[in-house]
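Write out this protein's structure.
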Amino acid sequence: MFAADRASRGLGIELLEQGAGTAVLRMTVTGSMVNGHGIAHGGYVFLLADTAFACACNSHGPVTVAAGADISFVAPAREGDVLVARAEERTRYGRSGLYDVTVLRGDDVVAEFRGRSRTIHSTRSEEPA
């Protein structure tokens, strides 16, 4: 799935690790990601966390999409910061799941994200090209 994610890959996001219900991704904050306050725009931090969530919840095979997500911004990130998003499955029940993602700058927490997933009844081969 990540190989086909042009939006995330176009921003330089790298998939470092993926396992059953887990994923670790990395992104460097560039000058074009900085807002008027001189810090990383929250949308880019959210996108990194959301991409880690997507990789983790799709690791089981069936096509899985976001049903919703929340993020808490804990500390600012700045241009040049290397952010790492670590996603972990908390539980799956029926076609739904809960995933937590921590976005880190080194050992410092930048954001905490919780995603809610939903498995849909299609396969990747049925999706439009």
